Amino acid sequence: RKASQEKRMPKAPKPEILINTSSWINIFEIGLHSYLVESFKVHTTPKVVEEIRDGEDFAPDARIFKDFTNKKLIKVIKKSTIPEEIKHEISITSGEMELASAAFDDGNFIVLIDDARVYRVLERAGIKYISSAHIVIDAYLTGSIEKEQAFLMLDKLRISINDNVIEKAKDVILKWK
Question: Which of 53, 73, 105, 112 has an alpha carbon 20 to 30 Å from 27's alpha carbon atom?
């Protein structure tokens, strides 16, 4: 009874994340998909939904993604027009272009993307981004996973994320007491 009478601190709003196909697969592969939707307001674009649903018949991550979108744990945002600033970027796919356009339209979004080629495009357009390694750091810092788990997850991400990013993430975890 006493606990219910204590004033509760208001919770900080969840950061708004825009996720693409490869980042979803990476987060799923390391087992942080539930953590992601619990800790962040996750959004995606119609193109990403289409790409992931192509794997529905054989990929477990696609079935969970479909379930998360049906339950609105991952919200699908409307397609936005491609801004002039990024219209001529040939180094990024249509799905990434759609993601960048949505983030450009709404400055509250942080793009969760693991493709270093896209980082330069996002930087030039002034769009905030993180990688799956940052989600591992967040899960560790919030006490959701142990240090050993975090390191195993980061090592598993090496197949799709630059070694430099992985080593920096490990340094952050090691320095945190």
Answer: 105
